[in-house]
């Protein structure tokens, strides 16, 4: 007969063996899950200019922001290239403009025009010299409107703007249009300078806009 003590030892050995097997399988499963998660997990996809989603083929990705009061200049990005910003030291008070080749997406020219203490004539000359097929990106900084006259507003409206007629002292405004555009642009935002709604003392809040501009095909 097998003694009771022997039976207990055998049972203990079997239990220990089964426990070891169970723990081994648990460790193996954890290890496999860890390796699988490393394979499956990917970094968040970053789109051009930090857009929330990628643009379809035949479109240029853009993201832009107006200036903040008279302190922080506007920012314009196209196809992951920073065209204008305070960091690039190519922005200024008034209306900031970036001209882009509608076929290639290459920057043609950037400039800014002081609409508070400057003269509107250079701005009008600049607008008249824009070639057909050019993408025009504009952003306000501080005051974009005091020196604007009807001729200047009409030229901007011809680029696809519907809000330029209402642009006033220290309003914030961002716009993307084009020379030779046949319709009004869907890429435009405007906020009035109002003591009741201003985020900053004397200035409205910053405007931000992103989107996909169709590439010129003809």
UniProtKB/TrEMBL annotation:
InterPro entries per record: FAM3, ILEI/PANDER_dom, ILEI_FAM3C
Could you tell me which Pfam families the record lists for this protein?
A: ILEI
Keyword check for Membrane: yes
Localization recorded for this chain is: Secreted
ILEI/PANDER domain ranges (all copies): 93-180
What PROSITE patterns is this protein classified in? GG_LECTIN
Assigned keywords, A-Z: Disulfide bond, Lectin, Membrane, Secreted, Signal, Transmembrane, Transmembrane helix
What is the name of the protein in this document?
Answer: Protein FAM3C
Which sequence ranges are marked TM in the entry? 6-28
Cellular component terms (Gene Ontology): extracellular region
Q: Which superkingdom heads the taxonomic lineage of this protein's source?
A: Eukaryota
Its family remark reads: Belongs to the FAM3 family.
Mention one GO molecular function.
carbohydrate binding
């Amino acid at each position: 007969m097998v003694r009771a003590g022997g039976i207990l030892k055998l049972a203990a050995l079997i239990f220990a063996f089964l426990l070891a097997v169970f723990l081994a399988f648990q460790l193996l499963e954890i290890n496999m899950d860890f390796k699988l998660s490393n394979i499956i997990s990917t970094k968040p996809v970053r789109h051009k200019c930090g857009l929330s989603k990628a643009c379809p083929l035949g479109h240029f990705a853009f993201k832009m922001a107006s200036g903040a009061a008279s302190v922080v200049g506007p920012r314009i990005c196209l196809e992951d290239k920073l065209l204008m910003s305070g960091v690039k030291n190519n922005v200024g008070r008034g209306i900031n403009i970036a001209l882009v080749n509608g076929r290639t997406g290459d920057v043609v020219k950037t400039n800014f025009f002081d609409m508070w203490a400057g003269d509107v004539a250079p701005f009008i000359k600049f607008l008249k010299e824009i070639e057909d097929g050019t993408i025009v990106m504009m952003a306000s900084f501080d005051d974009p409107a005091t020196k604007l006259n009807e001729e200047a507003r009409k030229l901007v409206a011809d680029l696809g703007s519907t809000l330029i007629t209402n642009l006033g002292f220290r309003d914030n405004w961002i716009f993307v249009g084009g020379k030779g555009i046949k319709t009004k642009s869907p890429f435009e935002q405007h906020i009035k300078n109002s003591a009741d709604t201003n985020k900053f003392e004397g200035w409205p809040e910053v405007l931000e806009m992103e989107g996909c501009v169709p590439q010129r095909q003809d």
